[in-house]
């Protein structure tokens, strides 16, 4: 069965789902300054309020867990079947063709930040519940649709949920791709840094030519940066700033983008007296996303290690570069740190583990995976098997959860990218699959 046919079974909800997605994506729910009752900023809390109100209007019971997250409940007692999604989004960087928080609806898609990651998929899950409710289905237990507000920055929202609310017995997160994701690579954000000697600076050694005063790129390590600014000073004291452009992408798929840091560093390396961070970058990273020169390249059954230079800051006294590394599920992060430490030592640089999410090592034969795979294959007529990915999802943040959709095999990845979108067909088709998955899990 093709996507169009699958989507047709949710056609009655088409306009309502479009309107709900547009309303949620109009809220710029990037993580902000903590406020009373809004630990991740006022805009994320506003998005939660809107989502809970939407669910209440559809007949589900809304619960706000201290502004960290919230959920919609259906059913009165028994084990919980859960869907975990998130309402926070990554920043909208330069290059959009329109205001990223003013959604555009065309004949076949909705374009805005958050449409694919993860507001659109949450709407699909919500209307999957609505469809089941409208047909008279009665869950054996409870179905709970959980909406978090910190997935893009560490999932503190789900840690809070685990402390104050009941854990589900089974469920999925609609924040990856079909079919079922049974394993996820480890994620390490590692900072390479160097400092000048006391009383010295990284200036031109002979007093002539240009000197690189500063460089800035990236807002989040989990995004391929689309812009890098270099500030230069010539020997007459004139200061200029040059902007280098790339193409944004999700850090787990660095080949989908074009890293602006790499573009800028390649240019800077051609000028005499380059900053030592430029020299380090060209020697150990350049345009390679495998980590070969850093001594960390390799793979296992979950796939290869991937490396994304995500955030760069340097001046005349110091330099720092944060790498997003997705490493194979059977590896240890300490081994990666040791190899990188040895690689950067000749440049008088150090490495520091900024954040770390251990791998999710799953079993493709577990009942939850087999149930969801059966639903997917039955709905699509495919004969797929469960897969492993480099992305990080809420499946790591809560037991008994796996990633399941909404992207179909062969579709382009638009998460974290300029002009992010979701097709209306995918919005409906994934809702249809989620409807049947929840019927199986809660029935």
Task: Report on the architecture of this protein.
By secondary structure, the chain is an alpha+beta fold. It has two domains: 3-183 and 361-442, Aminopeptidase (3-Layer(aba) Sandwich), CATH 3.40.630.10; 186-357, Alpha-Beta Plaits (2-Layer Sandwich), CATH 3.30.70. 28% of the residues lie in helices and 27% in strands. The chain has ten helices and 24 strands. The strands form six sheets. It has an eight-stranded mixed β-sheet with strand order 1-2-6-3-7-22-9-21, with helices on both faces. Strands 14-13-11-18-19-10-20 form a seven-stranded antiparallel β-sheet. Strand 1 and strand 2 form a beta hairpin. Helix 2 packs antiparallel against helix 4 (119-134). The chain is elongated. The relative contact order is 0.19. The mean pLDDT is 94.
Layout: helices, strands, pairs:
Elements: H1 3-8, H2 14-25, H3 42-57, E1 61-65, E2 69-74, E3 80-86, E4 104-105, E5 109-111, H4 119-134, E6 142-148, H5 156-164, E7 170-173, E8 176-177, E9 180-184, E10 186-195, E11 211-217, E12 223-224, E13 227-233, E14 239-245, E15 249-250, H6 260-268, H7 276-284, E16 299-300, E17 303-304, E18 306-314, E19 318-327, H8 333-344, E20 350-357, H9 367-380, E21 387-389, E22 401-404, E23 406-407, E24 421-423, H10 424-442
Parallel strand pairs: 3-6, 3-7, 7-22, 8-23, 9-21
Antiparallel strand pairs: 1-2, 2-6, 4-5, 5-24, 9-22, 10-19, 10-20, 11-13, 11-18, 12-15, 13-14, 16-17, 18-19
């Amino acid at each position: 069965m093709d996507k169009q046919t699958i989507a047709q079974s949710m056609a009655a909800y088409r306009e309502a789902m479009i309107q709900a997605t547009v309303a949620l994506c109009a809220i710029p729910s990037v993580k902000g300054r903590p406020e009373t009752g809004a630990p991740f900023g006022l805009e994320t809390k506003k998005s939660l309020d809107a989502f809970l109100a939407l669910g209440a209007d559809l007949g589900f019971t809304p619960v706000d867990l201290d502004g960290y997250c919230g959920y919609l409940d259906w059913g009165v007692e028994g084990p919980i079947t859960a869907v975990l999604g998130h309402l926070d989004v990554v920043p909208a960087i330069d290059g959009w063709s329109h205001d990223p928080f003013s959604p555009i609806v065309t004949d076949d898609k909705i374009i805005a930040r958050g449409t694919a990651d993860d507001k659109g998929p949450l709407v699909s899950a919500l209307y999957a519940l609505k469809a089941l409710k409208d047909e008279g289905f009665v869950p054996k237990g409870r179905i709970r649709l959980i909406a978090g507000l910190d997935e893009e920055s560490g999932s503190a929202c789900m840690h809070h949920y685990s402390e104050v609310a009941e854990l589900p017995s089974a469920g999925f997160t609609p924040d990856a791709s079909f079919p079922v994701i049974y394993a996820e690579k480890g994620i390490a954000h590692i900072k390479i840094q160097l400092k000048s000697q006391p009383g010295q600076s990284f200036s031109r050694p002979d007093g002539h030519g240009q000197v690189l005063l500063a460089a800035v790129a990236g807002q989040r390590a989990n995004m391929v940066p689309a812009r890098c600014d270099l500030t230069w000073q010539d020997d007459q004291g004139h200061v200029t700033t040059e902007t280098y452009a790339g193409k944004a992408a999700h850090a787990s798929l660095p080949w989908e983008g074009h890293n602006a840091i790499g573009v800028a560093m390649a240019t800077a390396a051609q000028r005499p007296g380059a900053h030592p961070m430029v020299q380090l970058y060209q020697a150990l990273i350049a345009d390679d996303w495998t980590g070969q020169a850093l001594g960390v390249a390799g793979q296992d059954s979950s796939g290869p290690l991937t490396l994304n230079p995500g955030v760069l800051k340097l001046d005349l006294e110091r330099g720092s570069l944060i790498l997003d590394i997705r490493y194979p599920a059977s590896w240890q992060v300490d081994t990666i740190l040791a190899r990188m430490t040895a690689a950067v030592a000749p440049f008088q640089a150090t490495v520091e583990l900024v954040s770390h999410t251990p791998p999710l090592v799953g079993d493709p034969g577990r009942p939850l995976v087999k149930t969801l795979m059966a639903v997917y294959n039955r709905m699509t007529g495919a004969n797929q098997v469960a897969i492993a990915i480099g992305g990080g999802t809420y499946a790591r943040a809560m037991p008994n959860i796996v990633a399941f959709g909404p992207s179909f095999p062969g579709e382009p990845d638009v998460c974290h990218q300029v002009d992010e979108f979701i097709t209306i067909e995918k919005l409906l088709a994934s809702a249809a699959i989620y409807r049947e998955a929840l019927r199986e899990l809660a029935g």
